[in-house]
């Protein structure tokens, strides 16, 4: 029985990817250390939905522990890996860089070593738009730069370099995805869209760093999952942007949420954070060419879907600590 390993399976992207694969009849081995990088209630909520599938097997494990990881590989017939585990967040990475090195760098090296030893067919790695730092938009996969200001962005760039090394030496088939501001139902509470919807819905103030005119490529989770699953059959080595090819300002985002909730936001403007990128926008020609992939859900539709989930799950959302 061929099995797909998903690391960070209780995380936002990991959960939605696992759920879609399980619904498609695939056998999924999930790994997550269930850390408290954000309110664990949400991770437990996602995991509870996954364990209802008979074709799902969960392992509470930290990917930085090589020997324990090896046991999981030895007990299962893993043929493909979707690596989504790791420490996320630009600002938090400044406070605890050692944790980001342990999780993001040591973690992927352990997985690559085991992929080599157990002859894994396909390896997908989650990188980030943060690797582009202050490059000119739209960000192209060919325009990689080394002047990355956040420790988080640095660790993600290093994962790309390690994957190339293992591809070159051991001929592993590896796809690096640079994700661009992924959002949707059961999202991460440490990200702006989850925070904004909850706070505006509860008539609490939101904080904007800068004037709100900075732009982002907001990408709905369903589009991201489709891209990941399509890439499971790709061979060789590629780094691919996966994001919306339209960008919107934070001010526009807030107006969209206000409209969806039919409530007015209370906004407190703060000083610009130098770690924040002013604008993000991916060049997605490669994703279109290799995966026949384009984002289908625009911001207005995606925000409405996300708001509907929040409204249907207000009791859960209001118990989540931001």
Span of the ends, CA to CA:
41 Å
The pLDDT mean sits at: 96
Tally of strands: 13
Strand order of the largest sheet: 3-2-1-4-5-6-11
Helix content: 40-55%
Please state the overall shape, judged from the principal axes of the Cα atoms.
globular
Low-confidence stretches: none
Question: How would you characterize this protein structure?
Answer:
The chain has 322 residues and is of the alpha/beta class. It has one domain (3-184, 218-245, 280-296): Rossmann fold (3-Layer(aba) Sandwich), CATH 3.40.50.720. It has 12 helices and 13 strands. The strands form 4 sheets. It has a 7-stranded parallel beta sheet, with helices on both faces. The relative contact order is 0.14.
Q: In a few lines, what is going on in this structure?
A:
The protein has 322 residues and is α/β, with parallel strands linked by helices.
Helices, strands, pairings?
Layout: E1 3-7, H1 12-23, E2 27-32, H2 40-50, E3 56-60, H3 66-75, E4 78-83, H4 90-95, H5 97-117, E5 122-128, H6 151-170, E6 174-179, E7 182-183, H7 192-201, E8 206-209, E9 215-216, E10 219-220, H8 221-230, E11 237-242, E12 248-249, H9 250-261, E13 267-270, H10 285-291, H11 299-312, H12 314-318
Parallel strand pairs: 1-2, 1-4, 2-3, 4-5, 5-6, 6-11, 7-10, 8-13
Antiparallel strand pairs: 9-12
């Amino acid at each position: 029985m061929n099995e797909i390993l998903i690391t960070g399976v209780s995380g936002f992207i990991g959960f939605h990817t696992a759920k879609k694969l399980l619904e498609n009849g695939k056998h999924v081995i999930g790994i997550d250390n269930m850390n408290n990088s954000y309110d664990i209630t949400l991770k437990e909520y996602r995991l509870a939905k996954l364990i209802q599938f008979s074709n799902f097997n969960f392992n509470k494990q930290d990917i930085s522990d090589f020997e324990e990881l090896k046991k999981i590989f030895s007990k299962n017939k893993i043929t493909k890996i979707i690596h989504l585990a790791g420490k996320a967040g630009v600002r938090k990475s400044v406070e605890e860089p050692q944790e980001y090195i342990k999780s993001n760098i040591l973690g992927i090296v352990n997985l690559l070593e085991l992929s080599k030893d157990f002859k894994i067919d396909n390896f997908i790695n989650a990188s980030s738009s943060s690797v582009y730092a202050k490059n000119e938009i739209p960000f192209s996969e060919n325009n990689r730069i080394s002047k990355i200001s956040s420790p988080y962005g640095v660790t993600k760039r290093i994962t790309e370099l390690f994957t190339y090394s293992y591809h070159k030496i051991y001929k592993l088939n590896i796809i690096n995805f640079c994700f661009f501001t992924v959002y949707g139902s059961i999202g991460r509470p440490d990200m702006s869209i989850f925070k904004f919807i909850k706070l505006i819905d509860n008539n609490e103030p939101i904080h904007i760093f800068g004037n709100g005119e900075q732009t982002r490529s907001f990408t709905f989770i369903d589009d991201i999952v489709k891209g990941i699953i399509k890439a499971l059959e790709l061979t060789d080595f590629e780094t691919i942007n996966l994001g919306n090819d339209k960008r919107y300002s934070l001010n526009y985002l807030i107006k969209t949420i206000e409209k969806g909730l039919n409530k007015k936001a209370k906004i407190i403007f703060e000083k610009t954070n130098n770690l924040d990128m002013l604008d993000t926008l991916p060049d997605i020609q490669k994703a279109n060419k290799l995966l026949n992939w384009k984002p289908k859900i625009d911001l207005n539709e995606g925000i409405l879907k996300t708001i509907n989930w929040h409204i249907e799950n207000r009791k859960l959302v209001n118990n989540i600590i931001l």
